Amino acid sequence: MLCTLLNNAQQDYGTPTTEPLPKKLSELRVAIEVHNFPLHIDAVKISDRYYWKHTTSILCRESEITIIEYGAYLFYNGKWNLRKSYPLKELNKNFGTKKQQLLQAQPYTWINNWRSDSKLYAGWAMWYFIGVTPAGEKVCGYQKIETTNTLLNP
After folding, report:
1. C-alpha separations of 113 from 29, 35, 55, 87, 117 in Å
2. How many Cβ atoms sit within 10 Å of the Cβ of residue 40?
3. Of all residues in the chain, what percent are helix, strand and coil, respectively (each to 5)?
4. Are 124 and 117 in contact (CB under 8 A)?
5. pTM of this prediction?
6. Most-buried pick from 40, 82, 101, 143 (CB within 10 A)?
């Protein structure tokens, strides 16, 4: 019975408030806009999996930028922990860029940027992007999202 209770207990990974950004982001100027929609994502259940469906868009207003790294952090144990850095070729596939290049004022959107899991739980993630300007300056962009343990289709 204890195992069943533990398996069904809601996990709480904490809420980021004033915790510092990961070092590789905190040392860079923010020049890439990152927008996730929605910012608070409720789950839907499809077959035996839960899905937190959202989109992620990126844009640079000031110049072209070449993305050299992107991925996501998860918040737990009181800090941001790298979940995954994605292969750059996936940026072109998912966001529709060419050669990881963001053109000035051109939005790029990953429409089906979904998280899925066999368990329903809440948490925080942060999508990040690191790029280089034509002048050689390394810049970044990021945005936090909250995934909830609210099920939309019980």
Report:
1. 25, 12, 5, 15, 14
2. 12
3. 10, 55, 35
4. no
5. 0.89
6. 143
